[in-house]
Every structure is written in C-alpha cells, then in structure tokens.
Amino acid sequence: MKTSIATVSISGSLSEKLTAIAAAGFDAIEIFENDFLAFDGPPSDVAKMVRDHGLEISLFQPFRDFEGMPGIHRARAFERAERKFDLMQELETDLILVCSNVSPLALGGIDRAADDFAELGEHAAKRGIRIGYEALAWGKHIDDHRDAWEIVRRANHPNIGLIVDSFHTLARQIDPDTIRSIPGDKIFFVQLADAPLIDMDLLHLSRHYRNMPGEGDLDVVAFMRAVAATGYDGVLSLEIFNDQFRGGSPSSISIDGHRSLLALMDQVKREEPDIAIEVPEMPDRVGVSGIEFIEFATTKSEAKQLAKMLTTLKFVEAGQHISKDVSLWRQGDINILINTDTHGFAHTSYINHGTGVCDIGLKVGDAAAAVKRARALGAASFSQSVGPNELDIPAIRGVGGSVIHFIDATTELKNVWDIEFSAGDFRKETGNLISIDHVAQTMRHEEMLTWTLFYTTIFKTLKHPMVDVIDPAGLIRSQVIENNEGSFRLTLNGAENHRTFAGNFLNEHFGSAVQHIAFACDDIFTTAKQLRDNQFEPLKISPNYYDDLDARYGLDEDLMVLLREFHIMYDRDEDGEFFQFYSPNYGEGFFFEIVQRKDNYQGYGAANAQFRIAAQKRGMRARGMPKR
Ligand code: MG
Ligand code: MG
Question: What's the pTM value of the predicted model, to 2 decimals?
C-alpha cells in the first residue's frame, strides 16, 4: 500500500514538513499550491527536495471552479488549467485534483460538465497529465460523489477519473456502499479524513475540524471497505484540515497520521479479506483483561511518604525484587511497585519528572503479539538489561515517555511475581480494595487525540464521547477509553492551561503522566470506615455538594448521613449507582480514588468532577501550594 499525506495537514516550513512526513514512513505527499507559493525557490527545487526526502508528489491541488463556466469564464478556466499543467510538469507530478465548482457563475448540467472534462482530458493527455474530479460537499451543483462519477463516466476520457474523499461522502451521510458500483480503475485517488460529529456548517467543519481516521466519529472503515472492494489499489492519502494540527508538532502529527492509515487498512483487510491493496501483516488489536501492576519511580526518602499513603490504604509490603530496589505492595488483585533504584529507566523517569508512575503492566492474551502490533503501528520499543533469573518482559513506550509492559498467562511471564520477587509478609491482613478500576492520565489538550489513537489502535478498546469538566481556572476535557468488559478503563484528561488542577500537575511534573489511580471495592461504607480507622483522611468535600445532591436525587436520609460522614460522592444513571471518595493530594497533585460500582453503572462520576477539583484546589492552597 502506498501512503500519502497532504502538506496542509501539518505545521512547519515545507522542508520541516517533508522531514516529518518521511520520518513517519509515508511514501508520498499531496502538495497544496499555497505550500509552493510560500516557498522561496523554483518548482524544480521543490521537486528535488521532495525526491531528496525519498518522497514523491502523488497529487497537486486544488484546481477550483472549472466545470460549467459560461462564455469568457470558460475560456479563462482552460487557460488557468494550462498554467497549472506547466507547474505540475516542473514539480514532476502527473495528477491534479479538480474540485466541484462553487462559483455562483457555474451553470450546472451533467452533460455540460462532462463535455468540459472531455475537452480538458484532451489538453491533459498531450502533457501526460491525469485529472481527478472530486465532489465537494458544498459544491454549487455537484456535491455528491455519485454525480461526480456520472460526469466522469460521460466524459469518457482515459485521462479523466474520479477522486473520492471520505469526508465529503460521510459528512453528507451518503451511503459509502454506493462507491462499490464504480470501477476501481476510474478512481484516480482516494483522500481520507475523519471528523467529530458536531452539528455545524460542512465547509467550516471540513476546514477546521477534520482529523485522522479513527480520531473522529465518521465510519471511515465502511468508506474504505467500499473503495477497496472496487479493486482500487492506488495511493491512500490523508487530507486533514485541522487548526490544532496546524499548530502542533509536525512529527507527532505525521506519526499519528501514518498510524491511523495502517490501523484503518488493517481493519479493512480483516473485514474485506479479498482487497487488492497490500496491507502490512500485523497481529489483531490486543485484548487487555486488566492492569497487572503500576510502578512508581521515586527515591528512598520520598518512597516513605508513598509507602505511608499505601499503608493507610491498607496495602501491605508483599515482596522485594531479587536484584533491584523495588518493593511490591499488594491488596486484592492490585500490585503496586515502588522503585527506588538509582540507575535504569525508573531513575531516569524520577530525574525528569519527580515521583510518579513510570510503568504500567497490562494483562494481555499474548504479550509478544502486543509488542508486534504496537511496533507495526509505530510505537517506540522499550527494553533494558535483564539480570540473571529475571524475565525479559515485552514492553513499549507509552504516554509521556512512560513504559507499558505486557504480561500474559500462556508463558513464563505469568509467574513474574514468584520469579522476580522474594516472598514478603502475605499473612498480614489487607483491606477491602479488590482491583484497579481505572487509571487517569493527564496531558496537554493537544495530545489527547494522539493518545486516544494510540490506545484504540493497539488495544481492543473503544472511546466514549469527550466530556468537559469545569475547573475554577479553566476547562478540562475528559476522554474515556475502555474495553467492553470494563476490565481495562482509562481516562485521559486534557488541560488547556496551567492554572487548572490538572494543568498545574502537568507543569510540576514536567509532562503527561498518571494523575490518579482508582481502586474498586464491593462495599464503599465498610471500606471508608476501615480506612478511617487506619488513619486514612479522605479529601473533604464541601457540605454544599451534599445539599445539592439531596435536592437532585432525594436520597434516603440514612444514606445522606453516611455520604456526608465519609466524604463520599454519589452518582447514578439508568443502569446503576456509583460511589467515590478520594485521598488527599500527594506531591504535585497525584491522588488515589476509591470507587464502588453498583449494578451496571459504567460511568466515572463526571458530574462530581468539578466539586472534587474545587476541594483539591482548596487542599493545595491550604498547604501553601500554588497557584491561581
Ligand atoms: Mg478532498
Ligand atoms: Mg476517577
């Protein structure tokens, strides 16, 4: 398969763009005329630069307002085309995109447009140039690929073909299966983009909010299945107009783009096995059955405070690593590691970020396959030296340079605790916490799509619609990623500024990281009492919250008393009830959460988040910490 991306999709000078695009693994670019116009040099220099980066120009665009023009305007349109052809020859590219006419002067008429294209095909043929016609969703007369195809069909010229663009088809809710009746050899080029489902003018949505396949809500898989079923095996090109991407890191956006294309085609190939496009082999998305461990990097002195927090949560120290300064803390199925090594990856993480989560171990079906898929999708590998009698646990890099290890049940990896840890004091009584309910990662808002794409393309997970959480100092965007079984739940929280509670954490931690870990229990009140008796002090929630809760739900008086007493927050939906309380802040805003899900409640108490944040910020100010 041949992958391409439009230069408008990313930021930077043309040279910066080409470097990032080539490094991400693309074969080609679509060049936008503006990129060329802004470039200080002749077109032949552009052609050479593109070649020097190991790329080619798969498409030159756009050519606007061509078909169906009256009188003198028609003649001018043909003259303009000749000048573009000159430029294309210097750029060494042979395919140009003509988008459907939006001019108020355009006359309309399928046959008239077909005649114009037949004539343009003659001019193009003399130069060895091919023309691709694309229906813009907001074209004056042609806004549907089916009508564009009828024009191409009637033009009946070998140099005239169709360009389909997933955005224009899917955003207008045209059934993508209508593409299946178009001959594959008349589809000259395929452009791919996704977009969020926002009710707005299509032109505005297209110019500002497109995103990578898989990042939005359009069924790009269905679109691409239909295209592939025609026998099309040409270039697959991303054409993404997105304000955020145009201000983002060219390399990160390029990597996301390449990952999205590979994951898309892997999915298409699994659903439509007989397609002509050659898709790189990789294992299927990896099922995650839970979180096996969470590892903190810290120092011996700071570890004391962390250990104290875990002790008040009724964890016990259950083992010591055979060669590293790593202690294992356990309760229920939860394994927490505290790494105080003075060398190796964890120490580097401590130097860069301070005390925090540096590593997460995921329980998967096949650990080797998990790494293989992640690597095939461009994830960075991770390994460090393995001591005698230690296991080489497969791993990749995740959010903020942290590490994700994979543990499976079919290999020796399942015995990691027995192999690598001396037995600690298992007889000591632990508490009621059963498992890790969810892990919350905080990041800059601009990074959220990147990490959503990372998790949803590598693992069998799905994303929920983003929700906004109000911090007194700004907005936090929250994205849930979870599996069907609810055994693997992540929340990604995007901070837009550093004055929010999440933003302050990002700032103090020097980058994205886990900000809270939620533990599940079966009986929130017994657990809360047990922890209180164990010197645990919950985050204090304002009495006003409970007055409002009472007004909203009319809860039982006894229940209200308990909620107030233990500072437990409450939520409910049609499927069940949810209880949650929080630890105080640790360090720069890290905290633990304890939850109970009743019946089939699947949420995270989003409605409570702003009151929790307000309480946490009060806690920070009370301790003389920053900053509003
Ligand atoms: Mg397009
Ligand atoms: Mg939470």
Answer: 0.94
